[in-house]
Design brief:
This protein has 279 residues and is an alpha+beta fold. It is built from 12 helices and 10 strands. It folds into 3 domains: 6-100, Arc Repressor Mutant, subunit A; 110-181, Arc Repressor Mutant, subunit A (Orthogonal Bundle); 188-278, no CATH class. The protein has helices at residues 15-21, 28-38, 46-54, 63-67, 71-79, 110-125, 130-137, 145-154, 173-181, 196-199, 214-218, 254-267; strands spanning 44-45, 83-85, 94-97, 159-164, 167-172, 188-191, 223-226, 229-236, 240-245, 275-278. It is globular, with a radius of gyration of 22 Å.
Length: 279
């Protein structure tokens, strides 16, 4: 049966999963069907989806799970093609049935999906080590090391080793010339906690996250990215963006930070421009 790399471990069959959610493997197909039926009339917010699902006696016990966010419970539903994000409503996420999307072609076979995911990772985050790939696709409830090793072996001709400060990483051969021709950037960005450009390589990657700063980044602190390196954290008040610049980071780029504060205010729809204050 086709499935995604993330769902390959069938986490809903794990004893810990069954105990925590009080769902047996035999309950999982009915749970998926209930979710799809709940979304039949259009996208729902998480609260609305939770109310619809727990209206069924069989799943009434999951109400506290939905009240807490239900993130781990519903992720496999996206991996298995039951639903996806819909259009946000009043600043809240919604979910919709994937089968209602005319462009949805269904989930490919696992090995095809796995190879595609590995190539996509290198194209997005490369140069990267195999450990990076295992972190993104294999750790926790993922594809598993054995499968990933097989996909990496099959794709070895597409990869080229690259030396990064004495560390051997890999990039797609088609991307290497462009990578070497790219000039270093000092671009400054204010990113939200758990932004995928940082979480992709992982908070253990010392090229991206200083080791001493891993804890706040892992705990969803809003981060300042300067030249591709996490260099501070930020927060907002009514009229300001307050930046806490790391002592070990390079010179504070005040002009670039002020421009980012203005840009952030526009993104957030603030009527009054946000000004910069160093914490």
């Amino acid at each position: 049966m086709p499935t995604s790399p993330y769902a390959a471990s069938r986490m809903w069959e794990l004893p810990s999963w069954q105990e925590y959610y009080d769902l047996k493997p035999a309950d999982w197909p009915a749970f998926r069907e209930t979710v799809r039926e709940s979304l039949a009339d259009g996208p729902l917010t998480l609260d609305e989806l939770g109310a619809a699902v727990t209206a069924r006696r069989r799943f009434r016990h999951l109400r506290p799970v939905f009240d807490d966010g239900a993130g781990t419970l519903i992720k496999p539903l996206t991996w298995q093609g039951d639903m996806s994000f819909g259009t946000p409503r009043d600043g809240r996420h919604t979910f919709q049935r994937l089968e209602d999307n005319p462009r949805w072609a269904g989930i490919p076979e696992l090995d095809d999906a796995g190879r595609h995911a590995v190539v996509a990772y290198f194209r997005t985050y490369g140069p990267a080590t195999f450990d990076h790939v295992h972190y993104w696709l294999g750790d926790g409830l993922g594809a598993g090391r054995k499968r990933l090793q097989g996909w990496l072996a099959e794709l070895k001709d597409l990869l080229m080793p690259v030396d990064i400060d004495g560390m051997i990483a890999y990039a797609l051969r088609d991307d290497v010339d462009e990578l070497f021709a790219t000039s270093p950037s000092r671009t400054v960005r204010l990113l939200p906690g758990h932004d995928q450009w940082v979480i992709g390589p992982g908070t253990k990657d010392e090229h991206v996250v200083p080791p001493a700063r891993r804890t706040p980044v892992t705990r969803k602190a809003n981060i300042v990215l300067a030249g591709g390196v996490v260099s501070g954290t930020w927060r907002t008040t009514d009229y300001e963006v307050v930046v806490d610049w790391f002592d070990e980071a390079e010179r504070v780029p005040r002009t670039a930070l002020a421009e980012e504060a203005t840009r952030l205010g526009a993104i957030l729809g603030r009527r009054r421009p946000l000004t910069l204050r160093m914490g």
